[in-house]
Here is the input.
Amino acid sequence: MKSASGMNNVVMLVAAPLVIYAVLAIATGVIPGIELSRTPATPGVVPLSAQAARGREVYVGEGCSYCHTQQVRPLKEDLVFGRPSVAGDYVYDTPELLGSERNGPDLSDIGDRQPSEVWQYIHLYEPRAVVSESIMPSYRWLFRIKPHADPGDVVVPVPPPYSPPHGVVVATAKARDLVAYLKSLRQVPLRPAAGTSPAAAASPGVRAAPGGGGR
Ligand code: HEC
Here is the structure.
């Protein structure tokens, strides 16, 4: 008798936490996950081009997200990076490259903020050539130094003292793909039908109608 009720206690001790854990996991993880996976794309968000998708692989491979996020928080100090991110921005971005370390600026909207390909190439070759105090590593292996440019080469006008003593700096296919990816990172303005989204209200791209009606 005694040992049977002792056994029941053990079963209860194991079963009760298991049930509680399962309920919590389903309520806080599984159900929100299913709901979020049904989020439609933010209108205007398009899938990456084939070249930009290859560039995304380079971005992952080079570890850019160890220093850069792609998630603008609804905070005043993040407004400089764009509007607060919403789930629909990531529909074509699996797995999302949200990042967690903000050693460098958020790149969610870098295609708008810095549309110059030439700037991006010089910056990747040698960040200090364009931002003197930069701590970003240089990615020179994405470039080649050739004695002369061949037809079709993308020549990068690296300024002295960072330019090589001889020859020209040419972007490799990886660098071209990566820059195509960076240019594709653009936030689309939010235009909710009801005009009730707090994220939209904070968006610098969306202005309330004069008179404060808001649409
Ligand atoms: C060790 C951290 C670190 C890594 C790794 C890193 N970055 Fe940066 N990045 C920075 C910092 C810091 C800045 C700000 C200074 C500057 O502009 O160089 C920056 C700036 C930038 C900017 C300009 C952002 C702006 O708002 O002007 C771009 C674009 C960029 N990085 C792309 C990349 C890419 C692509 C990679 C991977 C190939 C990469 N970064 C890897 C630290 C890093």
